[in-house]
Amino acid sequence: MDEQQILAFAQQFDPQPFHLSDAAAKNTLFGGLAASGWHTAAITMRLLVTSGVLLQGGIIGSGGELSWPMPTRASDILHVESEVLEITPSRSRPDRGMVKLRSETRNQHGDIVQLFVAKLVVSRRTQ
């Protein structure tokens, strides 16, 4: 994550002062430039897809709970730690099921900048 990425994303998708200018963000609850939560979410998705979350059929969301306990900053290096919480086979569709996946996006200090508990639709292996 760097300042130019934060500014470019904010200009296109979330043009609020605390995402567009460090000076404007100084007097907000963020106390300085903060990445949009949606930017953090997009990076999290990229990390999930490219780092080996191996779900047959891809990562297909059907809902979830998302929170940003602290802001992502320009100097942050992000990584994601995920845990499968639940696997539920579909009763009516034997070719699929649901997975509940908890993903913590952390910065280089280990601080959680995003928490996402996703409900995912997954294909089931044929026996």
Give keywords:
single chain; 127 residues; alpha+beta; four-stranded antiparallel beta sheet; 4 helices; 26% helix; MaoC-like_dom; MCH/BMMD; HotDog_dom_sf; Acyl dehydratase
Folded structure, characterized:
With 127 residues, the chain is α+β, with helices and mostly antiparallel strands. It has a domain at 37-123: Roll (Thiol Ester Dehydrase, Chain A). Helices cover 26% and strands 33% of the residues. It contains 4 helices and 4 strands. The chain has helices at residues 3-13, 17-20, 22-25, 37-50; strands at 60-67, 79-89, 96-106, 112-123. The protein has a 4-stranded antiparallel β-sheet. Strand 3 (96-106) and strand 4 (112-123) form a beta hairpin. The longest helix has 14 residues, at 37-50. The mean pLDDT is 93.
Summarize the structure.
This protein has helices spanning 3-13, 17-20, 22-25, 37-50, and strands at 60-67, 79-89, 96-106, 112-123.
CATH fourth-tier homologous superfamily of the domain at 37-123: Hotdog Thioesterase
Q: What is the CATH domain class of the domain at 37-123?
A: Alpha Beta
Overall outline: elongated
What is the string of helix and strand elements? Answer: HHHHEEEE
Structural classification: alpha+beta
The largest beta-sheet arranges its strands as 1-4-3-2
Q: How many helices in DSSP terms?
A: 4
Strand proportion, as a percent range, falls in 25-35%
Q: Level of helix content?
A: 25-40%
- Write down the Rg: 17 Å
Oligomer: single chain
CATH architecture of the domain at 37-123: Roll
Topology:
Layout lengths: L2 H11 L3 H4 L1 H4 L11 H14 L9 E8 L11 E11 L6 E11 L5 E12 L4
Antiparallel strand pairs: 1-4, 2-3, 3-4
